[in-house]
């Protein structure tokens, strides 16, 4: 069975919140930071390495910021923690939202403040992607849905996402969306933390739900 191009199997939401702090711009010679070989491993459906994912995602984000003449961001353990809570909440409910029912972390503002950082500004990007790398495949063939076997029309197997491919795809999607791009290229933030959650019941053998929080 042939399935038409996955109708942008990703979904996105972006939100800005809190106050404003101006940071200086800097013109930098831009290149992506080196990422470990482990980033090319398939993301497991349980116990994903959130630190590795953050390292790869940060390399993508800082590369885009560098090209815009902006200072790089640093990782915040507190932001990673609250992003993880929200990503898992969204995954458990298969719901993309900036609101949750987590006490004390139900909004973007509450999550950023719950990170423990002293902040004047914060924002959030969220999104979801299928577990498999359908984005570059065009039309796909479902060989065996029960076994999660998919190929291109030409017969090339479609693999599950690696840490590197997921980070690259989600940042690319965020950068093509005005609101998400604004958050990534905000000169007034200096810290970031992200996380991914997984729902095995998503279409085409599972979905990753992602949350990324910024603060400054």
What does this structure look like?
There is one protein chain. With 216 residues, the chain is of the alpha+beta class. It has helices at residues 50-67, 77-93, 108-114, 163-175, 178-184, and strands spanning 2-3, 11-18, 74-75, 121-130, 140-144, 149-152, 191-199, 207-215. It is built from five helices and eight strands. Strands 2-4-8-7-3 form a five-stranded mixed β-sheet, with helices on both faces. Strands 1-5-6 form a three-stranded antiparallel β-sheet, with no helix packed on it. A hairpin with a 7-residue loop joins β7 and β8. α1 packs parallel to α4.
SSE layout and pairings?
Layout: E1 2-3, E2 11-18, H1 50-67, E3 74-75, H2 77-93, H3 108-114, E4 121-130, E5 140-144, E6 149-152, H4 163-175, H5 178-184, E7 191-199, E8 207-215
Parallel strand pairs: 3-7
Antiparallel strand pairs: 1-5, 2-4, 4-8, 5-6, 7-8
Helix pairs in contact: 1-4
